[in-house]
Amino acid sequence: MSSLSGRIQTVLGSIPTDQLGKTLTHEHLTMTFECCYYPPPAFQANLADGPIVMKNLFWLKQNPYSHRENLLLNQEVDAVKEELIAFKAAGGGCIVENTTTGISRDVKMLKWLSQEAGIHIISGAGFYVDATHSPETQAMSVEQLTEVLVDEVLRGADGTDIKCGIIGEIGCSWPLTDSEKKILRATAEAQTQLGCPVNIHPGRNSEAPFQIVRILQEAGADVSKTVMSHLDRTIFDENILLEFAALGSYLEYDLFGTEMLNYQFNTAVDMPSDNDRIRAIRSLINEGYDEHIVISHDIHTKNRLVKYGGHGYSHIFNNIVPKMLLRGISQQNIDKILLENPRRWLTFK
Q: What is the pTM assigned to this prediction?
């Protein structure tokens, strides 16, 4: 603890907090998402296994989980490297990479990307949703799961000496499964021991973030060091959002660049536009939550890379920040969202 207290841990080692730079708090650089393949309708079945081609890009944007190759982001290392170089040129300093056990975390590749692009990358410890839990993971006790999390932060992940700098994204379904509840309790215990930041992937229901925070609090977690991800696809009612904000976690709007007619994982959800996201963030700022907001893209499929006509990792810097300024969000608040809030969250107690 003494060596990490007051510092931030990247895949290249710990750094002083003033070296972090502007930060995206929820991205993936190399992962697989085959666990979430969503078969297309029968009349479009031929599209599932074909190559990514120009004439299918709109279909792919609307149905990103129905194309098998699209789910293999780990095949695009060179394209990702080039994007990270562009990200740095656009003013970026750090990416928090939230790939955990179950979706092909590759800490060696993250270290290489960090060295090649000259940016900080922070890797996530822990486990994704229940559907990806191995029988061994499901059989573990809370104490055993806690030990895994602590080891990934203090000693290294996946048989390496490359250490994680956060716990998360910890995957949660709706409703929560028994295995996921154990991992949440282990997350709270590990956070208590380490004083580390945590990132949560909530289930796709507006009650999910509340339930998760209750479990974490009961297990002794520090909610003020915890990010609740994906609020832009989870809580839509402003009153409910403010009720959740009052619980004290960081509020993450992390699907910038994702705009689709039908959200495949929950068709009851009308996926917001980037303008909607900016409007929600402005409302939170007006309500006094400017020190609790963080943002990102959560890139996890090929079609969102520039190589395939997507927005890429620089979208927030190049397009969203100028629109925020146009819509009355001050540069001071933008600096809080991209620099000060991530730095505070990522610093070990």
A: 0.98
